[in-house]
Structures are given as C-alpha cells and as structure tokens.
Fold these 2 entries.
Entry 1:
Amino acid sequence: MSWNLSFFEHLIAAVVIAVAVPALSAIVFPFAIRRISGFMSDRLGPNRVGPAGLLQPMADFLKLMLKEDITPNRSDRFLFMLAPIIAFITPVLAVSVIPFSKGFTIANLNVGLVYVVAFGSFTVLGILLAGWASHNKYSLLGGLRSVAQMVSYEVPMILNIIIIAMLVGSLSLNNVVGAQGRVWFIAVQPLAFVVFIIAGMAELNRTPFDLPEAESELVGGYMTEYGGMRWGFFYGLIEWGNAAIWSLTGATLFLGGWRGPFAGSPGWLILKVLVLVFVVIWFFSTFPRLQIDQLMNFAWKVLIPLSLVNLGVTGLLIILLPNSFLPPVAAFSWVSTIALIFLFQPVLRKSLIRKRMRRAAA
Amino acid sequence: MAETALEKDRDLRLEEMVLNMGPQHPSTHGVLRLVLHLDGELIVSVDPQLGYLHRGFEKLAENRTYMQFFSMLSRLDYLAGFFMEWAYVRAIEDLMEIEPPPRAEYLRVIAGELNRIISHHMAIGDYLLNLGAVTPVLWTFRDREDVLDLLELLTGQRMMYNFARVGGVRYDLPDGFEEQCRKFLKRFPAMIDEYEQLITGNEIFLARSLGMGVISPEQALDFGLSGPNLRASGVPVDLRRHNPYSVYPELDFDIPTGLNGDSFDRYKCRIEELRQSVRIIGQALDALPGGPVNMRIPPMLRPPAGESFAAVETGRGEWSNYLVSDGSLRPYRLKLRDSCFVAISTLPKILPGNKMADVVGITGSLDLIMGSVDR
C-alpha cells in the first residue's frame, strides 16, 4: 500500500481485507445464487427475511452458529477439525496480492501469479482431509474425486496464466493490470479466457464440474459428515471465498482489473467480480453434471492440448515479433476460439453417436 | 535381498468397496436400497434391496370391502394414482359385467392422461436432477402445478384422487374445467419445447445419456419391461393400442418409440408422450358425449364369484391387477403387478461396467417409484 501507513496499520488493513473478502463473499454470493437461480428457474427464492430477503444470509449464519457441533464417532477428530481450517487458507491468503486499485495492493509481490496459484492449491488438501477424516464412503469418494479433478484442472489453468504472464512479461499482478491500459486481455486472448473460465469452474467445484459434492450421487460429497458452522465454513467461506478469489484473479488477468471508464477504482473490480460470479450462477442453472471419466478426458484431451498449442503459438509470436505481438496473438486466439465453439459440438456429437452405436451393438 | 518395488506392489491390496446406497439417499426415489460393489468409480455389481415401503396392500385388500380398499389404491403409485383406481374398477366391472356410460369413460381418459402428464413431469425432472441439472425439475414442477390444479378441479384432490367409481366416475366435469383445460393444452406444447431447448441438445446431457444403460429389445422383452422403458428399446407395445380398453380405440395418437434403448431414448419417449397426451386430452374434450357419469350400483358391492384381470397403461408401463371374488363383500384375492419392479430387476444387468454417477443417472431414466414396487 502506498498510503504511507505504518507497519501496524498496514498489518491491520491487510488482515481486515483478507478476512472481509471471503466473509463478504460467503454472505453475498450464496444469497445471489439462490435469488438468481430462483429467477432462472421461475420461482422466487428466499424473500421473507428482511427487505427482499436480504437478511436471509444473516438468518442462515445465525442458524448454523447455533447448531450442535457434531463430530462423527469413528472419524479422525483432529483431521476432521483441521480440514476446514486448512482449506480456508486459500481465500484468506490469496487475496493479499490482488491489486484493488492503482497502488492499492496488500502485498505487491513480484511473483504474485505464482503465489495465487500456489495458495489456490491448498483447498484440495483441506477437501482431501475432510473426505478422509469423515470416515464415510461418500465423503471418501467425494474427496478422491476432488483431488483428481482439481489437480487435473490446475494444469490448464496454470498454462493459461502463463500465457498472460508471457504477454505481460512479468509475474506481478500490478504489472498485469498495468499492461491492460489500452486493451483488456480478454480481447487479446479469448481462448485463454474461455479455458480459464472452464478450468475455474472445475477448481471451484461448481456446475458442471461439481462432482466432489454431487448431491444426487454422493449425498454431500466430502461435506456429508459436516454440520453446523463447520459445514458453513466449507460451503460459505471456502467455496464462495474461492469463487471470489477466482473471479478476482480472472478479472485482474483478463478484464483489466480495477481499470474502467472514467477512473479506475475498486468499484470496477467488484463489478467485474460480480459479472464472473454471475457466470458461475448461470452455469449452475443451465448445465447438468459431467461424469468423472468424461471430466478427466475433457481436461487431458481437450483443455491441456488446447492450452499447450495456445501457449506455444503465443510464445512463438512473441519471439518472432517482439515489438508488435499483440495483434497477431489476438488474431490467432480469436480464430481458434471461434473454431472451438463451432467445431466442438459436431465433433463431440459424432463421437457420442459412434459410441452409442458400439454400445447398442454390443 | 531387498524387496523390489514390484514385490512391494503385490502387497498393495486392491479391494472392492461396498457402498450401501439408500434407503436414505437424495436420489433413490423413495426408499430403494442398492448395494453397490465399486472398483474405484466403476460399478462391479449391483444388488437392489426392496421392501422398505412394504405395506401389505394385497393382504389389506382381503380384509376390506371393495370400496373401503378403494381409497388406498392411489397410495401405490402416488404420483399417478388414478391409473390404479382405473384398473381396479375395470376388474370389478368385468366381474359384475357392467359397462360404464360413455361420458364416464371419456372422463377417465382425461383424468388418466392428466395423470400421465404429471407422472412424466416427475420422471423427466427427477432424471435431470439426478444428472445434476437443477432448473428442469423446477420448470416441470411449475407446469405440473397447472395440471394438479386441473385435477383438483376435476376430482377435488391433488394426489389421492378417489375419482373412479365402479360403473363410472365420482363427479361430472365442474364449471370452467373445460375452458381451463383447453387453455392449458394450448400453452403446454410450448413448455415442452422449452424443456427441450434447455436440455435436450446440451452436450453434457448427451454425453451422460447417449449409450448409457442400453437395454436391447430382446432383453427388454425377456425382462418383461413395459411402458416408455420398453418402447425406448424399439418395441412399440402400448396397451392403449394393443389391448385397447375404454375409449382409446376412438382416439388418434401415436406411440413414440426409441431405437437404441438407452437413457436418452427413454427420456425422449417420455417427452413425446407428453405431446401425445396433450393430443388425447384435446380429442377427448372434443368428443365428450353427454349423459350420466355413473350408474346406480348397490352401495355394498358383491361381485359374483369368479376372477377377472384388468390392465392399464400407466405413465410407467403396464399396471395390472388380478381379482378373485368368492361372491362375498371382500375380495378373495387381489394380485397387483407393476412395471417398476421389473425395471428394478434390470439394474443388476445394465449397471455393472458403468461409472458410479450412472447409478443415479440410469436409475432415474427408468423412472422408478417405490410406492408401487413395495406393495
């Protein structure tokens, strides 16, 4: 922070922001998903507590706090209690490198991107612990699924973050925003943005990649045995806190961060975050869920090759045209995005129908 | 010599995980319990366990008069209760050799097809919910509410209709029913298109349903499947057409069939049947004759000694009952047979080899209802 704060002032501000972002997102986003998906599915959603139901998150929070704290008999008590705390590290720590406006970052790390990715992986540890410690088969399956999924989707996610880092020539998130003065990277690298969105859904365990907590299959997935505020930790603070981190990162990498018309301010960043969270909710209301093998195939056979090609071509263009690489990169990326959108469906359909014929013949 | 890594690996025991899915589980449609043997995510074997909802209907029937048992019938398949009543009164009418007035037959067809619509609404919505899509189930429930309003107008009840009577139906059409029903029939096809737009072409849905849980026509016939599950396998058997009852021969409708017998075809068959039901109700309203809706029958039914069999095509397949009377006030024996029990018996055959997620996917596509399985 550049406002000439003392060390302690800085520390207090950092802690407040780091806790406020996941906490606020735990309050706002679950309410938003309930109202918006309610609107999309032609019903009302919560509208009784407070004006337009706005106090519903408070009521839920109160209820969760007052519930009995249950630890299953045969669970591993220590790990059971440790799991939500470990998973909570991600949203709290990752927020500290996000630039909220010009010169307003908790920590201006020169390896900010690496830092975000590194702490982004912590959640998987907490989820695996939760799945293992619960001593429940559904939880175990959920935990294993989430490890497989998050590790697989981490790869395309990082590959696309590398693309942005190459375009900027720096790993600092401040420089990433600084480089988007004239044009946002969504216009330069739409392909990377699409992959980032898809991989993000998988990282966040959101529909259509919500297998770890697939309600209709695994009851509650890794959260099955958790109740009361421990469950609230997982659902509110961690899931939606991670959604906040993901959308903050996405807004910073692709949508110009705090930049916007008139003056750059945290307001623009928040607006972009809300847009990205709306996309999450929109997906939630629209898509069914993938199956675990389809999920892995999609990561390793579609997203990773796509990202590698994108990475290679972008790198090549940067080396060949060190001074004016943005237009050719943009051209390549737009063409391949449109090709992906128009080719994906027919190719998939063909392969599905072939598979169906094989199965029907067998 | 030190152990090599390979030798160590031999000690790495791989074992099947036995997962007890249900009876308390969000998507087992009531109280179906499946004992799954899983190899990782792969299903090795499935063992369905039934009986958690057993209420002894057949025995209860023997201890009640014909009409006393009547109100219990719609508790069997509680999502489409009128079909059970219909089959039961047909069996009694056969024994007593009476023929209900034509207006009553038309009203039965209308109530039956409305029931088919709500049954398929539930089937489609729940199937898609099992696949993880939340919106379709709410959309089908929104439209299901309209049909329930119609049924409430017609029968006075939303679920347990108690509408059919031996020799007719209980009430004539109430004022305003026809108008409201026609309004619904006009609006509803657009709603069906809406469901299809939302989900039918969706790649994830296709990936989850095409080629999943394939039942070949021979298998389907061997198992004794009926209803949409059988027709999805390409066997166009529908009791309304092939063993016609009531006024169905006078009505014009198609029998949608599938080709591959997979989950997608079963879903698609149900969607098409919604459209056919709309056609049937429209025709029945047009052709509705005047006259009484029931006939004078003695208050205490005493069907002559003998036996009769009646079957109707419900939303889930063939529902049949076999009634033996000894001429007393109570049935001597009432055997009920439903199609969901048969559908469950296919699970151990079609589930192994699929992934864990398909347990709920394929089970959902078979449209089971435990109320009629555990009688």
Entry 2:
Amino acid sequence: MRQALAMLLPVTLALVACQREERDTRPQSALGSGEQPTPVTTLEPGGQRPSPTDNKAASFEANAFHMSEGKRLFSWFNCSGCHANGGGGMGPALMDEKWLYGSSIESIHATIRDGRPNGMPSFGQKIPDDQIWELAAYVRALGGNAPSSAAPQRNDGMMVHPSENRLPDAATLGKSP
Amino acid sequence: MTFALCVLLLQGCAGWQSALDPKGPAAGELAWLIWFFTALCAVVWVLVMIALVAPLVMRSRPGDEPLLLDEAAERRKMRVVAFAVGLTAIILIGLTLLSFFANRTLAAIGSEAALTIRVTGHQWWWEVRYEDATPSRILTTANEIHIPAGEPVRLLLTSTDVIHSFWIPSLAGKLDLIPGHMNVLDIKADKPGVYRGQCAEFCGAQHANMGTFIIAEPRPKFDAWLNDQLQPAGAPASGEAKAGADLFLKRPCVMCHRIGGTPAGGTVAPDLTHIASRKTLAAGTLTMSRGNLAAWIADPQGIKPGSHMPVADLNGDELNAIVAYLEGLK
C-alpha cells in the first residue's frame, strides 16, 4: 500500500507539470464585447484607473500567450509605422513611463479601440475585441508593466531593444526624472 | 489470403497523394529506389533467416573429441563468412551508388526551369509567389500552385515562423521550409492533373490542416490562368456584394488580407484577389463554396482552432454581404 502511494506521488507531480495556461482563441460571445465608456482624460477621482473595469482585463493582463499574440499583431498591424517598436516616432513612445491616457490595460484598450486626438486612429471596427486586448497587454509589457515570467522573450531576428521580459520593471526602474 | 491483403493495402497507395504512384521524374526515381531497396533487402533478409534456421534444423552430431579442431570444416566456415562479408560490402556500396545516381537525376531536373515560384510556409497555410523579371507580372496567391505540365519548375522554399516541410508525394521528395533560409526544390509533372501535398514537419496545432495542391495544366491553359490571376479583383456585381466590398475595408478583414485593385493590402494572410477561383479554403481544410466561406468567416476557431484567423465581430447581414463579395472574386 505504502509502495503504491510512493509510486503515485511522482506520477502526480509529473502530471501537475502538464498544467498549462489556458489558450482561449474562440470568444464566447462575438457581439457586445468591449462596450465600456471611453475615458477621454487621465483625470480620474483619486488618479485611479478608468472605471468600470472590464472583466476581460484580468484574463489578458498577465497572460503569456495573449502577450505573445499581441507582439505578433503589433508587427502585423504595423503599429511600428508610428510607434517604431515602442521607441516612438510619429506616435508617442510606448516603452517609457509617460502615459498620456493612463497605463492601465483598460486605458490602452480604449486608446486602440476608439483612437485618441492628434493621430491615433480608431481600430474598434477593424480589430476584433480580443485582439485589441492582446495588443493592449503587449503594449503594457513594452513599458515594463508585465511580469517578466509572462512577457515575451527575445525575437529570432535582431532586436532593437531588450526582449520584453528583460525590460526594466516600470514600478522600480526606468522612470523618467 | 496474405497476397489478397497486400493487394488491398497497396490499393491505398494510389491516388493524388502517394509516393508509390509517381507522376513526375523525381518521384519516379524515388519510387523505383524504394521498390529496389525493399526487394533487395527482402532477399537479404530471407537469406539471413535461412542461414540462421538451417544450423538449428540440421544439427551435426558432436564428434568424439569436442576440443579437436576439424581444420577442413573450419576453413569451409571461414570461406562462407568471408563470402557473406564481401557480398554485404558489395550490396551496400551498390545501394549507395544507386542513391547517388538517383540524386544526380533529381538535381538535374530543374537545371532548365523557366518558372520560379517562391513558396513561403506560414502557420498554417502556404504563400505562393510567382517570380518574374517584370514587377507587374509577379503574382502572389495561396495554397494552390499551378504549374505547366511537362516543364521543370523551380520552387524556392522558406518560412516566416517555424520549420515546415513541403511534400508533394506524387511529384517529389520532401524538403524543409526553414525561417531565414532558402531551400531549392525542382519539380516536374509529366501529365496534367491535381496532386495533393501536405506539410510534413510538425509545425503546431493545425499542422494536419496545412495542405496544398499542385495543379499541372497544359502550357496554354497555365498561361491563361496566370494572366487571369494577374488581373485586379473584379468589381462587385450585386448590391449585396458591393456592400460586402465596403465592409471588407471597414471590418477586420482588411487588417491582414490583400485584394488586388482595392485599398486592402495586408500581406500577413492569404491573398484573396481571386479566392473564389481556388478549390479549397484554409489550406485544404474546406472545399470552396458559399456555405463554407460563411462558416469559415463566422467561426474559424471552431473549424481550425488556434489558427491566426480571428473571430470577427460580424452580424448576419455583414457576414452575408462579405461572403457575397468574396464568392464573386473569381
């Protein structure tokens, strides 16, 4: 009996290692998603994230799969055309700690979905909501706001900045003076 | 009985995707090699088995003095072993030479190729680009490769994400598509026909649904096809299709797909300029029909889970209009 239990323990431990992050590529409801009101200013009572908080945010925010998908979409959708791999060009830089419209994933999602004054187009009709969340999660990783255990690793090709999981953590380092 | 079973099993080896049913010189060479290797190795195996079983059956009686060497018998055995070793060496060298000459034949196929096609592997579809010195005659399409029958064609194989492998069993052996590297595969189809191919290197969730077709046609038909494909997309015919064309540019389709002659210029997904002229959808996953088009756009993650085609938030009218437009893109 004890032997059987002793056998069972390593097997259980091995099977636990098979657990992996959920990858949900098929949104449950195709309609009515992302219907939060657009925050047009960063001035929020108490400087908090714009409310209401979308319940999708949590499932995308620190999810490695969604962030790497966001990284792929960032290049596929030519975000670099204006934001230049996060360094900024015609559009603002995304890898510093200056957030014109808030650094929360909801704010970034709203920025991509509805656009912002002076150039940022609205992609609400053109990018499915889940992909906007993926992009928003990745943009946060660009600024060092994602856990390094989940942020994307280095590219196969040459990179113009350190891989996202090696960028300085926004909470401690990399703040502009 | 066994023979009947073998015949039945080998029946499965014919058809549009079989290395044992060659339809081109490269595949023919390889098929001959496979059969010759198999036959020769079978003969060798039978001889080895006979040599193994024979001493067990015909056991010699032990002599009076087991330790006494019978020199004549020892010499006889030595000769048999030496003969077997010599024969093995000759067979192995012979087979090596055969493979070498077969390889030379394969390499010579494309030396006069007039047509160069760049095939790029993506998760999970094939981008097909017909190279031409005149930029306006460069054609980009997907998943279906038309070639002129009876002419050698050079394929340049590469990939943008992971390693794939290009395999048209009826026409040629398999060759990998490697990111950042260009492999060259020369093929030739002796007769017109449709030959199916399949990604032969595990490349992710939808590896099994990454099929391709080589469509070999007589030269005049091929030229006509190429000229048709080079044309920009036709104007939408009906009012519904016109609405679909507008929606295509306003909704998620436009972010990734290209339709020649419209502002849609995405290059990260299959070119849809003449999508309705293709026989299948989603790299051989579905046959081309209005119903399948609608199903694929409505629920790509149900049909091909994990593929990069997202569920676009379209309502029923929008879906119908876009399908009506795409179905007219012959």
